[in-house]
Write a structure and sequence with these properties.
single chain, alpha/beta, 8-stranded parallel sheet, two-stranded antiparallel sheet, globular
Length: about 350
């Protein structure tokens, strides 16, 4: 069985190790959702990852509802991403753009007071982070069937922009209670048209978007993220094993290059799940590389590879606080804990000032 430190091919990307950097929202773009020079430093510091999956990046103004999160729908954003990808490549790394539409999680504050969109007329629980502080989520309106072509165009434009910005590919964000996940799971999808009801119908939007992305930039540059069990921002499903096995089979037929899963990890510390793991069912349905993510340590990550459960592991918070994580894992060096209070605050503190191992030792 391979080790974490062996290379792996993810479509068009040859990764030198199987320690991927998971997408991590950090809120260091401008208020207008334009990447900043500080982001280039941050990602370049982490270029030793087998592959960096960028923070979630909005495909359109309609789909982005997080303060100071980056987008990739405008020429200005594309130009601002170019120094980021160049810095990663100069450091010997590889980076893909995670394409994001938040659906009902977008507060009207971000879209000029317009109503957010979703699979159905539902409201997310809790409060949204907005530019004016926390505010209760508001009810979304169902996307109409005649709006789907426009949505597919938004994804295609974002994928073309990602390639123009120098990314090595993209990851479709279809997880964590955002728009595509709102269509996938019956807890949020109450439609009675071709996009609702049966599992076949509920995976339709995922399949259509994936197909469009494959047509736009090539299957070897497209990955997908799913979150196959547990409540996520109020989105859940009554039969996740059947749903996500079907979704994985559809993605396999479409030919996407790799699949990443955000699922309760070996310690069961993510989300609230009352079902058994879904990834074994997905493993049987998807023939290309499978990446697992959530609360893995070196020992549990290697065990997942040894057992054939995954081909690589994506690390999140540990990469946040340890820019040289592959080196630390290879040498068995201590890991720096992350500071939650600095996850989303402006500036370099808790972002680019985490030490490398040699600095920590000194």
């Amino acid at each position: 069985m391979p080790s974490l430190f062996d290379p792996i091919t993810l479509g068009a990307i040859t990764a030198p190790n199987r320690i991927l950097m998971a997408p991590l929202t950090r809120g260091r773009a401008t208020r207008a959702h334009v990447p900043t020079p500080l982001m280039a430093e941050y990602y370049a510091q982490r270029a030793s990852a087998g592959l960096i999956i960028s923070e979630a990046t909005g495909i359109s103004q309609e789909g982005l509802g997080w303060p100071n999160a980056p987008g990739i729908w405008s020429d200005e954003q594309v130009e601002a991403w170019k120094p980021v990808t160049a810095a990663v490549h100069e450091g010997g790394g590889r980076i893909v753009s995670q394409l994001w539409h938040m659906g009902r999680i977008v507060h009207p504050n971000f879209i000029g007071g317009a109503q957010p969109v979703s699979a159905s007329a539902t409201t997310a629980p809790g409060e949204a982070h907005t530019n004016d502080g926390k505010q209760p989520y508001e009810e979304a309106r169902p996307l109409r069937a005649d709006e789907m072509p426009r949505l597919l165009d938004d994804y295609a434009r974002a994928a073309r922009n990602a390639m123009a910005a120098g990314f090595d590919g993209i990851q479709l964000h279809a997880a964590n209670g955002y728009l595509i996940d709102q269509f996938l799971r019956d807890g949020a999808n109450h439609r009675d048209d071709a996009y609702g009801g049966s599992i076949e119908n509920r995976i339709r939007l995922l399949a259509e978007v994936a197909e469009r992305l494959v047509q736009t930039i090539g299957a070897d540059k497209v990955g997908v993220r799913l979150s196959p069990n547990g409540d996520s921002q109020g989105v859940n499903d009554s039969d996740p094993h059947a749903l996500f096995a079907a979704a994985a089979a559809a993605l396999d037929r479409i030919g996407v290059a790799w699949l990443e899963l955000r699922e309760p990890g070996p310690d069961g510390t993510f989300g609230k799940s009352d079902t058994s793991p879904v990834h074994p069912f997905i493993r049987k349905a998807f023939s290309r590389p499978l990446v697992l993510n959530s609360d893995y340590r070196r020992e549990t990550a290697q065990a997942a590879l040894d057992a054939g459960e995954a081909d690589a592991i994506a690390f999140g918070r540990t990469f946040l606080a340890n820019p040289d994580l592959p080196h630390r894992l290879a040498e068995g060096l201590p890991l720096t804990p992350d500071d939650m209070a600095t996850w989303y605050v402006p500036g370099p503190h808790g972002y680019t000032d985490y030490p490398f191992a040699d600095e920590a030792a000194a």
